[in-house]
From TrEMBL:
<dbReference type="InterPro" id="IPR004130">
    <property type="entry name" value="Gpn"/>
</dbReference>
<feature type="region of interest" description="Disordered">
    <location>
        <begin position="265"/>
        <end position="286"/>
    </location>
</feature>
<comment type="function">
    <text>Small GTPase required for proper nuclear import of RNA polymerase II and III (RNAPII and RNAPIII). May act at an RNAP assembly step prior to nuclear import.</text>
</comment>
<keyword id="KW-0378">Hydrolase</keyword>
<feature type="compositionally biased region" description="Polar residues">
    <location>
        <begin position="272"/>
        <end position="286"/>
    </location>
</feature>
<keyword id="KW-0342">GTP-binding</keyword>
<keyword id="KW-0547">Nucleotide-binding</keyword>
<comment type="subunit">
    <text>Binds to RNA polymerase II (RNAPII).</text>
</comment>
<dbReference type="InterPro" id="IPR027417">
    <property type="entry name" value="P-loop_NTPase"/>
</dbReference>
<dbReference type="GO" id="GO:0005525">
    <property type="term" value="F:GTP binding"/>
</dbReference>
<comment type="function">
    <text>Small GTPase required for proper localization of RNA polymerase II (RNAPII). May act at an RNAP assembly step prior to nuclear import.</text>
</comment>
<comment type="similarity">
    <text>Belongs to the GPN-loop GTPase family.</text>
</comment>
<protein>
    <recommendedName>
        <fullName>GPN-loop GTPase 3</fullName>
    </recommendedName>
</protein>
<dbReference type="Pfam" id="PF03029">
    <property type="entry name" value="ATP_bind_1"/>
</dbReference>
<dbReference type="InterPro" id="IPR030228">
    <property type="entry name" value="Gpn3"/>
</dbReference>
<dbReference type="GO" id="GO:0003924">
    <property type="term" value="F:GTPase activity"/>
</dbReference>
Length: 286
């Protein structure tokens, strides 16, 4: 039986999903691996990678919004497009094929409701699993907006929502590390391997309501006690760092299991003064 591997590249709008896909495609060429990309964003305008399948060939947000019988706005139009995809999975199956060791990235839309309370992404995962594809989630957050504790907690909750909804192995990644200033790189270290109880103390002064303070404490305690969310840094100028991200993803879906099984590699050196050793050791959540 052949094996096929799929990454669902998720995250809020602007988190760098398309950039991640194009960077990975370029990076793996040097590793003698082939990675192909499927665009699942019906509102995408342009991307810097070749696509093996594009949902816009099936349906586009602009067409839905211009339909006088539907009268959807941008968000409603996107949800309609994704539900249309769910009713036409035969189109996706025809474009995917079933090649041995096929490795495909799905560049997904950024609307968070698709991963929280709407069933369409869960339906996609279940369909891929029925086709005997091994699937993992890669959830991206923009490191530039995670340098404050309350914003970090919000990002953790978004990642956790996707994990709970989809029930697949998930790697959480902080993108755009190469765009941070040296000071912000140093500051972000504590968010890569977070102590949620310390963050709770950092946020306590900005929370005036006792009720919301107790809620924040409960959320931070839950995440910390069960080690539910950890992030890996993604710097597209750091080849070693990208290799480590790939190793964690490969390990989560057992890519190349016919080869010698390897645990995700740790970093011996610490670029940009980040304490990566423990970060990478704890980076996988499944």
């Amino acid at each position: 039986m052949t094996s096929s591997f799929k990454e669902l590249v998720m995250g809020p709008a602007g988190s760098g999903k398309s950039t991640y896909c194009s960077t990975i495609v370029q990076h793996v060429q040097a590793l003698n691996r082939t990675v192909r990309v499927v665009n699942l964003d019906p509102a995408a305008e342009h991307f810097n990678y070749p696509v093996m399948a594009d949902i816009r060939e099936l349906i586009q947000v602009d067409d839905v919004m211009e339909d006088d019988s539907l009268r959807f706005g941008p968000n409603g139009g996107l949800v309609f497009c994704m539900e249309y995809l769910a009713n036409n999975f035969d189109w996706l199956e025809e474009n995917l094929g079933h090649e041995e060791d096929d490795y495909i990235l799905f560049d997904c839309p950024g609307q968070i409701e698709l991963y929280t309370h709407l069933p369409v992404m869960r339906q996609l995962v279940e369909q891929l699993q029925q086709w005997e594809f091994r699937v993992c989630g890669v959830f991206l957050v923009d490191s530039q907006f995670m340098v404050e504790s309350f914003k970090f907690i919000s990002g953790v909750m978004a990642a956790l929502s996707a994990m709970v909804s989809l029930e697949i192995p998930q790697i959480n990644i902080m993108t755009k590390m190469d765009l941070l200033s040296p000071q912000d790189k140093k500051e972000i270290e504590k968010y890569l391997d977070p102590d949620m109880y310390c963050m709770m103390e950092d946020s306590s002064d900005s929370i005036r309501s006792k009720k919301f303070k107790k809620l924040t404490q409960a959320i931070c305690g839950l995440i910390d006690d069960y080690s539910m969310v950890r992030f890996l840094p993604f710097d597209r100028t750091d080849e070693e760092g990208m290799n480590i991200v790939l190793q964690h993803i490969d390990f989560s879906i057992q890519y190349g299991e016919d080869l010698e099984v390897k645990e995700p590699k740790e970093v011996d050196e610490e670029p940009s003064n980040l304490n990566y050793d423990q970060i990478f050791q704890d980076g996988v959540t499944s």
